[in-house]
Write a structure and sequence with these properties.
about 400 residues, alpha+beta, Beta-lactamase, seven-stranded antiparallel beta sheet, three-stranded antiparallel beta sheet, 12 helices, globular
């Protein structure tokens, strides 16, 4: 900030230091991260032929940073350029919204995290699970939220993906997906013993949300989180509620070379996925959640970030599986480039991350399932751009 320096001298005489024609020195302009962030997103598209389009939102209120950008194509075939205004299916990022809505019901006294799931599920679902060896009287809402229920995941087999690709317009139902989990696999372990990521558990949470709130899933989540208060004007639950007026068409999203844009979304719709949003809205939700704008009580966020001690990995978990305990309630807690980060990703190439020590929230899409490997470097690069531009 330019300051005019006035010197006062004794006896009430004021002397203004003469500087002749010289002008006061103006400090150099602060670096603008916009160019670096745009270059970063353009590099992501240029470096990976599988990525047709990408979008990035970067928000840090304490740094006065609110930036959104995009590169590549939202629809390569028709030559539609990608913009931050193009919504995408956020897939498993939906789990964070579902977990937050469940915890709002806990705050309201309508649920308890240690309630047995048998108390809140339809009788036919309970009977189906109990008949396959699950103990729905011991399995709790907390187990479902943290992927520690021991449930077999209906989306765990290649057969499920093959069925979706073979008939992309099939109208899957929650009961059909739960039945598939029962018929294709056995319980992994009793509740609370192992960690294994499980879409089926979040389908059950979707049913529990409806039962406890007395509202359809999409309406319950919208109201409990309060989309309006967070400014989520380009967020909706596909099929279950109308697309907001004025939003752009969804960007095309790919499974390898396969354009999945017109796939009917029921294969990932009932709690484990289902929401469509822009990257800006995804960042606004994630930032609002971790800045205390979703829960009524600050302690609820700490509950969301809690986990079970002594969890074991799934015996045949792959090398890339995240460690037990990293997943909390709808969010992973991991170390990234020297920072603790809270994040989630989605099957179709979406990512949301909050970095608390930088007051930084990042959301991105690369519109490509098979290029999620770019996310870690993309996250690191974004953090470094922000760090560079936040130095005094």
């Amino acid at each position: 900030m330019l300051r005019l320096v006035i010197q006062s001298v004794a006896l009430g005489l004021v002397t203004i230091l003469a500087l002749g024609c010289a002008q006061p020195a103006v400090p150099p302009a602060a670096p603008d991260p916009a160019d670096d962030l745009q270059a970063l997103i353009e590099k992501v598209v240029a470096d990976d032929a599988a990525v047709h389009g990408a979008a990035l939102a970067v928000f840090s209120p304490s740094l006065g940073l609110a930036w959104e950008g995009a590169a590549g194509w939202a629809d390569p075939e028709n030559g539609t350029e990608m913009t931050p205004a193009h919504p995408v299916r956020i897939a498993s990022n939906t789990k964070t919204y579902v977990a937050a809505a469940i915890l709002r019901l806990v705050e309201d006294g309508r649920l308890d995290l240690d309630d047995p799931i048998a108390e809140h599920l339809p009788v036919d679902v309970v009977e189906l699970l109990d008949g396959d060896g699950y103990d729905t009287g011991a399995m709790t809402i907390r187990h479902l939220l943290t992927h520690t229920s021991g449930l077999f995941d209906h989306s765990e087999t290649d057969a499920y993906t093959e069925a979706i690709v073979a008939d992309p317009q099939h109208r899957w139902t929650p009961m059909e997906q739960i039945t598939l989990a029962v018929e294709t696999g056995d319980p992994h372990a009793p509740p609370g013993v192992i960690y294994t990521y499980c879409d089926t558990g979040y389908v059950l949470l979707g049913l529990i949300l409806e039962e406890a709130s007395g509202r359809p899933l999409a309406a319950a989540v919208r109201e409990l989180i309060d989309y309006k208060a967070l400014g989520l004007d380009s967020t909706w639950w596909e099929v279950l509620e109308p697309q907001p007026e004025g939003t752009s068409d969804r960007a095309h999203q790919y499974y390898g070379d396969l354009d999945t844009t017109d796939f009917y979304p029921a294969f990932d719709l009932y709690g484990g996925g289902g929401i469509a949003a822009t990257v800006g809205d995804l960042a606004r939700f994630f930032g609002g959640l971790f800045r205390g704008r979703v829960f009524a009580e600050p302690e609820t966020l700490q509950t969301m970030l809690s986990t079970f001690e002594g969890l074991q990995p799934l015996p045949d978990a792959g090398e890339r599986a995240l460690p037990p305990g990293a997943y909390r309630m709808g969010v992973w807690v991991l170390e990234t480039d020297g920072h603790t980060t809270y994040h989630h990703t989605g099957f179709w190439g979406t990512m949301a991350v909050h970095v608390p020590d930088l007051d930084l929230t990042i959301a991105a899409t690369v519109n490509q399932n098979q290029s999620k490997r770019v996310f870690n470097q993309m996250l690191i690069d974004t953090i470094r751009v922000v760090e560079k531009n936040s130095r005094p």
